């Protein structure tokens, strides 16, 4: 009888000890100590080559920052499917789930005030990227930011690629009339980068003392397939009169190259220049199919977006800690890429893959 009582007492004590140990383990569980940063990312469309690359960089850089800081970074990337209504709903969802920061690649840059008002009322900072809202909207709230580039710089550099090439090869002016006959593939008509790149690429060439004669221009909405369709039509209309193809982005430029290949006009045909420095474009430059591009550095922009987000969640002023920040803006510098330095750019782009 006594032995049984002793056994029961020992079992009870052991049970209490196990519960205490379990509670202690739960309290000291390192998983519960990890700071979590939740970031909602709303893109205008997921099938845009540059936006896809930037989102891939966001995922990669967030993993690096997790290992460096010990924080848990959760990214929720939503596809707006080129619908502002869809994007508004996605932002509402991020707000309802109390995300720490919201990043938005606007479908319609002219209505950013709606997003800012939503974010301000919820007191959730918002970082716009790639598609720049009008300045008056950004100034509505000191916790609204923009990460992107200087579109004027990209247009100037695109023009410089043509000027530099002409110095090396006057044969780009195939008919020898002292002018460059060109076609222009434009992005969305209302997109500020499209308008500015179009203007300054041509201005830079003419300011360099080279006359330009526009044969045609049209929008291809940043898309390779539409670039092919437009270029095919122009080749049917102008044939080998076209000496230069200026494109607001690489995908449309690659579409033009596809059209040239289809008509067996790539060799000794017009030179083609794009903007973005995507991997497909860099490979086309390396292969001699494309004259050059202007690198739109997605990696730098992804890093800046995450740096802003982490600074905000820590209670820091991003303007004091984020490299290259000027007020509420971060603008990543562009770089010219041609066959001379394309290997270096490919290495940079693929270093973390």
Largest sheet: 7 strands, mixed
Structural class: alpha/beta
CATH topology of the largest domain, anyone?
A: Rossmann fold
Mean pLDDT: 91
CATH superfamily of the largest domain: Response regulator
Q: Report the portion of residues in β strands.
A: 15-25%
Which outline best applies? Answer: elongated
Helix count, per DSSP? 13
Low-confidence stretches: 1-31
Number of distinct beta strands = 13
Describe the structure.
- This protein has 13 helices and 13 strands.
- Helices cover 49% and strands 19% of the residues.
- The chain has 353 residues and is an alpha/beta fold.
- The protein folds into two domains: 32-149 and 297-322, Rossmann fold; 152-295, Rossmann fold (3-Layer(aba) Sandwich), CATH 3.40.50.2300.
Task: Name a few traits of the molecule.
19% strand; 353 residues; 49% helix; Rossmann fold; disordered N terminus; 2 domains; single chain; alpha/beta
């Amino acid at each position: 009888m006594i032995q049984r009582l002793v056994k029961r007492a020992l079992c009870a004590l052991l049970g209490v000890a196990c519960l205490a140990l379990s509670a202690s383990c739960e309290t000291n569980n390192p998983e519960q100590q990890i700071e979590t940063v939740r970031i909602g990312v709303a893109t205008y469309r997921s099938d845009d080559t540059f936006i896809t690359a930037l989102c891939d960089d966001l995922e990669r850089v967030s993993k690096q920052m997790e290992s460096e800081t010990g924080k848990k970074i959760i990214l929720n990337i939503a596809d707006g499917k080129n619908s502002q209504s869809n994007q508004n709903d996605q932002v509402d969802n991020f707000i309802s789930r109390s995300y720490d920061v919201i990043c938005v690649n606007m479908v319609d840059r002219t209505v950013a005030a709606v997003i800012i008002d939503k974010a301000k009322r919820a007191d959730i900072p918002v970082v716009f990227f790639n598609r720049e809202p009008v300045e008056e909207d950004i100034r509505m709230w000191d916790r609204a930011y923009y990460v992107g580039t200087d579109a004027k710089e990209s247009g100037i550099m695109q023009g410089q690629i043509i000027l530099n090439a002409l110095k090396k090869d006057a044969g780009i002016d195939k008919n020898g009339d002292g002018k460059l006959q060109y076609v222009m593939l434009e992005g969305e008509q209302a997109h500020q980068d499209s308008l500015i790149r179009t203007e300054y690429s041509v201005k830079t060439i003419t300011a360099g003392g080279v006359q330009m004669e526009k044969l045609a221009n049209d929008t291809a909405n940043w898309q390779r397939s539409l670039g092919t369709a437009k270029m095919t039509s122009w080749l049917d209309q102008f044939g080998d009169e076209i000496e230069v193809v200026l494109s607001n982005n690489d995908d449309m430029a690659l579409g033009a190259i596809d059209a040239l290949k289809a008509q067996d006009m790539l060799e000794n045909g017009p030179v083609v220049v794009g903007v973005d420095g995507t991997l497909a474009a860099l490979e086309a430059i390396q292969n001699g199919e494309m004259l050059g591009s202007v690198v739109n550095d997605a990696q730098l922009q992804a890093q800046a977006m995450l740096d802003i987000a982490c600074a905000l969640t820590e209670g820091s002023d991003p303007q004091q800690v984020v490299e290259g920040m000027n007020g509420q803006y971060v603008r990543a510098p562009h770089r010219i890429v041609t066959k001379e330095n394309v290997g270096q750019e490919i290495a940079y782009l693929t270093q973390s893959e």
